[in-house]
Amino acid sequence: MIVDKPLGFSSHDVVGMVRRLAATKKVGHAGTLDPQASGVLVIGIGKATKLLTYLVGKDKSYRATIRLGQSTETDDAAGELLQTWDARHLSSIEIDQALATFKGEIMQVPTKVSAIKIDGKRAYQMARDGEEVKLAARPVTISQIRRVSSLRRQSGPNNETLWDFDVVVDCSSGTYIRAIARDLGEALGMGGHLVALRRTRVGSYDLSQAQTVLQLGSQIALDNEAEQPQGLSVIDLATVCQQNFPVRIVTPLEAKALSYGQFLPAHETGEIYAELTADHTVVALTKNQGKKARPVYVLAPA
């Protein structure tokens, strides 16, 4: 299920609504969105929860509002204000040139309020407890980053000029948009932070396919009044696999082998493949291991 998570809701809140609708606790999501962020949240139900492992790593797209001239404790608008600069001297050309340096494969230090674990403890929990958080830079890939609005003047506490503007970003999984805002400010000699964030795409799923929380709430009300559940607007497992992985058609004998967890000949590439029968029934996901393709998730076990 694809949901458009609204502001103020946690990802766990949405999972709770879907659990109630689906009448099962076996519900998860592919990639947390903070309550201060909105947009595409991929939900897995039942067997599909295992598929989430392979969807989390898909590329993502965002639309974000960045503010130049202020730094915050959390690199976003929810954090305590640390320092203010006057940004009136910055032109849109200078900002665009600085943005362009983030395109490609870069090394990024995650925000210290991330969910990354350090010695078994989440970074954000360490930050809340007042502990020093040191995170190593990691490679991320930004295939697109560009400004899509004019500069909007905001006023700082002492009438400093701050600049707000919107950007669109296409990036690899694990990229922190808050860190881009922070690092953009540093590249321009001042602070920067994220004002608003909306995720517009996860892999092959975008906002055009997403249901709203209001629609989910209406469905809960209908189900409470109906003798039979009204059903969910969901994407079936076979379709999900075909939308997100390269496909190989297998013979009945190969399908039987996969159902027992046996290996098949290797693929031409190192990607995870969806193995389908001629009638488009998905049997398993496989990945190369040496000269063989090993099942990593059997959807039609013997």
UniProtKB/TrEMBL annotation:
Enzyme class: isomerase
Record EC number: 5.4.99.25
Keywords: Isomerase, tRNA processing
Residue ranges occupied by any tRNA pseudouridylate synthase B C-terminal domain in the UniProt entry: 178-228
Tagged with keyword Cell division: no
GO biological process, one term: mRNA pseudouridine synthesis
SUPFAM superfamilies named among the record's database cross-references: Pseudouridine synthase, PUA domain-like
Function: Responsible for synthesis of pseudouridine from uracil-55 in the psi GC loop of transfer RNAs.
Family stated for the protein in its record: Belongs to the pseudouridine synthase TruB family. Type 1 subfamily.
Protein name: tRNA pseudouridine synthase B
Organism (species): Boudabousia tangfeifanii
